[in-house]
């Protein structure tokens, strides 16, 4: 499988971004408002944190397995399209299960289906960067990949606020996923990728190389920062900051975060291509994320939460500007691109599994939200400390 030297067109970029927005809306929209509200409704105020942690942890565990399997399956097929379609269908089915879930079991089952299903289109979209995009455009398109995920967060959150929590919110998100993905499927004319299915290269997966491992670790740590910020944001605003309408404030902070992250991410992607520099963007991102989370820890008031959201958005945007460019640059084998991107995507899904496990005991017994967000800042600093070991990049 080889990458074309021809640049991708703007129409393809727009359709690609829309498809990623749809996937992210189905994935992160529920995490922001729908799942926390559902957990509070089913478990009550005394058990909402534990139920949310259980649901998200089980879903993330399913995602941890699903993502590399979707990638391996994609490498054994001649087109990424079936992976996108089948995975999206499973994810939509999971959202509809959540829409009618009135007990813990169906809630867990629905979220597991969402996690398993939406990893399919995520794996396909990640692999398309390696398949279709030349190196000189990977900062720009990789930034679109990351920024579109951020826009998907605010879209899913806005849908939940606009149409209502519970069943209407889940149905709206379920409609958004295939609708936004349709354009890419309609305009994309994929050539056959390989003459014959490629066997899974277990040696490459198990021994991917030091540079891939360091890039994976940095991605894991910064995604863990993002996951720790988001996992109890709804409860932080209602219980620690004391706002009257936590759902509305989650939307406000998410919009602020997205606007800043989108602007910084896209500009950073273009500049990283122009300057042919990646590491400086990661370094600045880690420092900025740490500053934002320290503010959340030390000054839990609404106005400061907005400032912190600006900093977190700028930091996350700076990282997603170069994230995919970094990962695709250190892939060990072009013939196992989707498989290894699936392994790389574990660095994005594993934090979802760990975040509630880490956050729940801290929030309930080990220092509360100040301790949680100071730990989050320390994770960002640890990512910064790993960056000098990534010697393959400038």
Automatic annotation (TrEMBL):
GO cellular component assignments: plasma membrane
Keywords annotated in UniProt: Membrane, Transmembrane, Transmembrane helix
Domain Major facilitator superfamily (MFS) profile residue range list: 10-394
Subcellular location: Cell membrane
Topology in the lipid bilayer: Multi-pass membrane protein
Single GO molecular function: transmembrane transporter activity
TM region(s), chain numbering: 12-31, 51-70, 82-101, 107-129, 141-163, 169-187, 216-235, 247-268, 280-299, 305-331, 343-366, 372-392
PROSITE patterns, per database record: MFS (PS50850)
Main location: membrane
Highest taxon listed in the record's lineage: Bacteria
Protein name as it appears in the record: MFS family permease
Source species taxonomy: Bacteria, Bacillati, Actinomycetota, Actinomycetes, Micromonosporales
């Amino acid at each position: 499988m080889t990458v074309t030297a021809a640049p991708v067109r703007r129409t393809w970029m727009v359709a690609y971004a829309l498809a990623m927005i749809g996937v992210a809306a189905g994935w992160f929209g529920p995490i922001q408002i729908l799942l926390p509200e559902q957990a509070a409704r089913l478990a009550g105020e005394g058990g909402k944190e534990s139920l949310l942690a259980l649901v998200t942890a089980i879903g993330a565990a399913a995602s941890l397995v699903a993502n590399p399997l979707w990638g391996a399956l994609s490498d054994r097929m001649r087109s990424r399209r079936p992976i996108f379609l089948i995975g999206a269908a499973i994810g939509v089915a999971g959202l509809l299960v959540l829409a009618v879930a009135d007990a813990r079991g169906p809630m867990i089952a629905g979220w597991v289906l969402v996690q398993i299903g939406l990893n399919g289109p995520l794996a396909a979209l990640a692999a398309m960067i390696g398949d279709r995009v030349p190196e000189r455009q990977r900062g720009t398109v990789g930034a679109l990949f990351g920024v579109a995920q951020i826009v998907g967060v605010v879209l899913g959150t806005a849908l939940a606020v606009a149409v209502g929590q519970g069943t209407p919110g889940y149905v709206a998100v379920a409609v958004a996923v295939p609708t936004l993905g349709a354009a890419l499927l309609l305009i994309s004319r994929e050539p056959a990728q390989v003459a014959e299915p490629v066997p899974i290269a277990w040696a490459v997966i198990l021994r991917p190389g030091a540079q891939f491992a360091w890039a994976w670790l940095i991605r894991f740590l910064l995604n863990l920062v993002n996951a720790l910020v988001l996992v109890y944001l709804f409860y932080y605003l209602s219980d620690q900051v004391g706002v009257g309408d936590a759902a509305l404030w989650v939307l406000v902070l998410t919009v602020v975060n997205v606007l800043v992250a989108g602007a910084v991410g896209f500009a950073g992607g273009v500049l990283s291509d122009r300057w042919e520099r990646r590491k400086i963007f990661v370094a600045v991102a880690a420092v900025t994320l740490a500053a934002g989370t320290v503010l959340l820890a030390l000054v839990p008031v609404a106005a400061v939460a907005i400032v912190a959201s600006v900093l977190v958005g700028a930091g996350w945007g700076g990282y997603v500007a170069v994230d995919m460019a970094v990962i695709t640059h250190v892939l060990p084998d072009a013939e196992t691109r989707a498989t290894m991107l699936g392994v790389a995507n574990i660095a994005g899904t594993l934090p979802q599994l760990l975040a509630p496990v880490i956050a729940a005991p801290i929030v309930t017994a080990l220092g509360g939200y100040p301790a949680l967000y100071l730990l989050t800042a320390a994770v960002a600093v640890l990512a910064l400390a790993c960056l000098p070991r990534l010697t393959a990049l400038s």
